[in-house]
Known about the structure:
Blueprint: H1 11-22, H2 24-30, H3 35-38, E1 42-46, E2 51-53, E3 61-67, E4 70-75, E5 81-87, E6 92-93, E7 107-110, E8 114-120, H4 121-130, H5 132-158, H6 161-176, E9 180-182, H7 185-192, H8 196-208, E10 212-215, E11 218-221, H9 224-232
Antiparallel strand pairs: 1-8, 2-7, 3-6, 3-8, 4-5, 4-7, 9-11, 10-11
Pfam families: cNMP_binding (PF00027), HTH_Crp_2 (PF13545)
GO molecular function, one term: DNA-binding transcription factor activity
InterPro entries: cNMP-bd_dom, cNMP-bd_dom_sf, Env_Response_Regulators, HTH_CRP, RmlC-like_jellyroll, WH-like_DNA-bd_sf, WH_DNA-bd_sf
Amino acid sequence: MNMMKKAEFSDDWLTGLRRVVSDPTLYALLKNCPLEIMQRWAFEDIPRGAAICRQGDICQRFSLIVAGEVDVFFEADDGRRYRQARYGKGDMLGELEIFDSRNYICSVVAVSNTQLLSLSQAHFERWLTLDNHFNQRMLRFFSQQYYQLSKKASSDSLYSLHQRVCQALWLRYEQQGTATFLLDKQNLSQEFAATTRSINRILHDLKTLRIIDSDGERIVLLAPEKLKQEAET
């Protein structure tokens, strides 16, 4: 990567390259990328809330998240959004659809200011033929992605909405180490493919049981062990 002359590349490209080289996660993924492919990298800055790709559109590029976070969601005919995953630095977009220019299975929206490294289909396929290291990382990403989606599908089918909401509350309690935390109900409804009204009804039931107290988005956990029981039974 040190062999390139600055005069050959734009300032935006050089800035993006510096970010890749200085970041251990990105560098480990891209360190063996051939120069002929690196020259085709396009760095894109996506503002928070902007759509990156839309469900049903034809995929014509591969993208890697350099910075920021995105939500991947499926949109039902009635407009409800079912969030599949939240991706961040080092995750890939379009990797499933690009090989045969398929339609995007899901839509992707930036949830923070995001930077992408993108390649056309032809250059992406050329990259795979030249870089075995990247090939191996792709396989690991596919495996991890399939595992997480399978785990989510199993949870959605095995547990009731009541249990999944309780599990989400318990997870936030464990992660934050405090009985008081904020809960984004709209985000939770998208994650569980449920209406906000259904989420509110479950929270009301937990409040009636004196397991939680709530004030808007603010949740106060009153009985952690009871919440854990509700999540498991």
